[in-house]
Amino acid sequence: MKQFKTESKRILDLMINSIYTNKEIFLRELISNASDAIDKLKFISLTDSSASQDFKITISLDKENKVMTIEDNGIGMTDKDLEKNLGTIAESGTLAFKKENSDKTENELIGQFGVGFYSAFMVADKIVVYSKAHGSDLAYKWESKGAEGYSIEQADKSQTGTKIEIYLKDDTEDYKYSDFLDEYKITSLIKQYSDYIRYPIEMMMPTTKMKEGSSPEKPEYEQVFEKQILNSMVPLWKKPKAQVTSDNLNEFYQNEFHDYQAPLKSIYAKIEGSVTYDTLLFVPQKALYDYFSKDYKKGVKLYCNGVMIMEKCEELIPDYFGFVKGIVDSSDLSLNISREILQQDRQVKAIATSLEKKILAELKKMMEDDKASYQKLFAEFGLSIKFGVYAGFGMNKDKLKDLLMFYSSKKEQLVTLSEYVKDMQDGQEFIYYASGESYEKIGSLPNIEKLKNKGYEVLYFKDGVDEFVAKILLDYEGKKFKSVAEQDFSVDSQDEKQELESKEKENKQLLDDITEMLKDKVKQVKLTSNFKNYPVALSASGDVSIEMEKVFSSLPNQGQKVKAEKVLEISLEHGILDRLKNVQEDKEKLKKYATVLYEQARLLAGLDIENPTEFVKAFSDII
Ligand code: ADP
């Protein structure tokens, strides 16, 4: 017997002991696996006549032995496939599992990992898989009773495909597993979850028939079993739009993309024009655990006239819409299209262009008609769109900029740039933004205070990429972006400016002295007004902001060298200025004050203390 990997074992344990209410979804999962397997063989059969046959999925119920069997004549699995597909759970999955399992509910966990073959362990205490791969002479049997492990051995099976025997658990007070042996229950589950599977799902159904030889006057009946097809087999995207309900779309999405939640947004479109295709597109509620990792593969399922030719066609979806899932079916494509020609194929390019336009239009519409949902979408996937604006030196920025959202200091929710600009104050020149690690931290940044006092709205930039987005956009509707951390940042009135200038003149010697004392650390020391909660703030002159310095310093190698040119700003209103004046003549003391203030300003800006020993010494000397 072979062992499952430790983490796989934990996930299996979870399945086996699951109290998940939706146990029945295992059927949907196994049926869609069967359908996928047939899709794969059907594709091969286009060029290999030995592979073509009457494709179907067969369900049989053995009430006596409490075994449900699901059989397909799809592509099948070799012993290696069995080992790889059913012996381990994807590495990326287990990593995420380790990190994230602590605060998840059972539902969420099963949503993340359980949907798939293993979900059958929610209803079974033993599963046996017989499989024979297309083109192989040998068949194999995989068997497992759950967490202890599994075995693989050679077996007899004449037909290509996979047969899965599910040995159902005994009924308990809480759950009637034997329901899965009831033909009517199965029929209704298939109708509910798998109606649009394009291959027939067959089962022997009991019916009552008049006994042969019995007379019509005195009829005698008997129960016989007849083969029935349980699903309608019409793919959803081939149905007229008027017949497709949002429930249908939700079921289809969950079925096809193994999600336990309904999608946040569904798009159903039949496009006719320079290219003709049908498409179903979905935005999930939640990003998958690997969405922002390099393991994630974007793409839509590509069909040509109802035949699936590719599971994930990346070429059809731009990176910034990588979160969109769905299917595209076009009769304009050639069936034997390969990965290599795909990239240059004119039709594929035309579909990609059209699809992107469609997604853009739908997202904009969503933003207008259902803002709350769009905000949810942006909170989940906005990072992709922001990277899209920034990528390729901003080559896509114009089409994406209207989709952007940032958190607003005033409205305390995500707003679009267009909303921001519309609500700008009379005479407001700039789109103000402030960067930091979290909304909370940004909200307490010293410079925010000035803007809030003057009634300005500030956009909070929480993601590393945000400032780069602002830099690449330059402006929005003619309004330039301005960081509150920029050195020339000012919202002062004319009078206040004059007052500040005269104070700077008055204190020139003091400021020069401090500048000299901090010359390795800051480029300039100056006064600032409209700012009384804190004694000091740190801003940056030049192109690199303090937030960008943080992003760079988190990069390996080169990043460490990129530093912002810092400016120490001293508050006019706080009272610290008088304290500094008092010690102006005692240079040693002044140096200590300068050191403490500088390190405080770093802390407020979200940077670490630069020189802890110097800071602690200076600080304790002063107090
Ligand atoms: P998923 O379907 O999400 O990839 P599963 O755990 O359901 O995850 O299945 C793992 C893999 O096992 C599938 O990707 C597929 O390669 C293989 N597999 C499962 N069921 C079948 C089947 N009926 N025929 C052929 N291969 C299958």
Explain what the structure shows:
This protein has 623 residues and is an alpha+beta fold. The strands form four sheets. Strands 5-4-3-6-2-1-7-8 form an eight-stranded mixed sheet, with helices on one face. Strands 15-14-17-16-19-18 form a six-stranded mixed sheet. The protein is elongated and about 120 Å long. Helix 1 (6-16) crosses helix 5, helix 9 (346-369) packs across helix 10 (371-394) and helix 20 crosses helix 21. Adenosine-5'-diphosphate (ADP) is lined by residues 29, 33-34, 37, 72, 74-77, 85, 116-118, 162, 258.
- The global form is elongated
List segments where confidence is low: pLDDT < 50 over at least 5 consecutive residues. Answer: 90-99
How large is the count of helical segments? Answer: 21
Q: Strand-residue fraction?
A: 15-25%
Mean pLDDT: 88
Rg result = 33 Å
State the end-to-end distance.
Answer: 70 Å
Helix content: 25-40%
The biggest sheet amounts to: 8 strands, mixed
Number of strands: 22
Oligomer: single chain
Strand order of the largest sheet: 5-4-3-6-2-1-7-8
What small molecules are bound in this structure? Answer: adenosine-5'-diphosphate
Index terms:
623 residues, alpha+beta, eight-stranded mixed β-sheet, six-stranded mixed β-sheet, 21 helices, 38% helix, elongated, binds adenosine-5'-diphosphate
Write the layout of secondary structure elements.
Blueprint: H1 6-16, H2 25-45, E1 57-62, E2 67-72, H3 79-87, H4 91-100, H5 106-114, E3 124-132, E4 139-144, E5 150-155, E6 161-168, H6 183-194, E7 201-210, E8 221-229, H7 246-257, E9 265-271, E10 277-283, E11 300-304, E12 307-313, E13 325-329, H8 339-342, H9 346-369, H10 371-394, H11 397-400, E14 405-408, E15 414-416, H12 417-422, E16 430-435, H13 439-443, H14 446-453, E17 459-461, H15 466-473, E18 475-476, E19 479-483, H16 494-506, H17 508-517, E20 524-528, E21 536-541, H18 546-553, E22 565-571, H19 576-582, H20 587-604, H21 612-622
Helix pairs in contact: 1-5, 2-6, 9-10, 10-15, 20-21
Bound molecules: adenosine-5'-diphosphate.
Adenosine-5'-diphosphate binds at residues 29, 33-34, 37, 72, 74-77, 85, 116-118, 162, 258.
